[in-house]
Amino acid sequence: MSPGTRPDWGVAWWVAFLVCKPVLILVRRRDWRGLDQIPPSGGVVLAANHVSHVDPLLIAEMVLAQGRTPAFLAKSSLFGEGIVGRWFRAAGHVEVDRSHGGDGFGAALTALRGGALLVVYPEGSITKDRDGRLLNLKTGAVRLALESGAPLIPVAQRGAQDILPAYSRRPRLLKRPTVTINVGRPLNLTDLRQRGLEPEAVRDGTRRLADTLGQMVEELEGGQRAD
């Protein structure tokens, strides 16, 4: 965050930050790369790989440190009654109600056009691959970027699964692993935007995202094995 920048996180994010930041410092080391790729304002789609239930918190920490407020696409059950539901609504996350065949596209598009930084997991769920390889990507992140005109930025991350393994409820709090988050360059979608949301353009964009993000993930995994 540049000197003098005053982040507008809202009360909900300030509370979460004050509660969670000391815990994060204790349970992980951090290695953040490519932070200058995140625009200081305006709608943005960050498309990240998904390795653990805890990685949204780690990505949010990185985004908040750049003076931006992240909004996540989140399943509708998280917006129910109680403290969690109130926090999700107050923090500006986007509800996805799959029970009625929805994907949250309209709400996400409105948020982007209003200048939101939207974090999307294009795999749709946590990868089960032991080496962290990507699942097949869904098209939502590319559709949002094409329709809104917002930059589509791939984000590769590794290390969250060493704090809380995929689909586990038992955190490993003593290892203090390094969590690496690498923010890539925005994908070039200029030629595809001229074609609108025609299916082939969306598929081409999704393939580009899969190739780029997959390579970034492999590079992180390769570096981890080398260490």
TrEMBL record:
Coiled coil: none
CDD domains xref list: LPLAT_AGPAT-like
Domain Phospholipid/glycerol acyltransferase: 44-160
Keyword vocabulary terms for this entry: Acyltransferase, Membrane, Transferase, Transmembrane, Transmembrane helix
Transmembrane intervals: 12-27
GO terms of molecular function: acyltransferase activity
One matching Pfam family: Acyltransferase
PANTHER family for this protein: 1-ACYL-SN-GLYCEROL-3-PHOSPHATE ACYLTRANSFERASE, POSSIBLE ACYLTRANSFERASE
Name of protein: Lysophospholipid acyltransferase family protein
Organism expressing this protein natively: Nocardioides daeguensis
Organismal lineage: Bacteria, Bacillati, Actinomycetota, Actinomycetes, Propionibacteriales
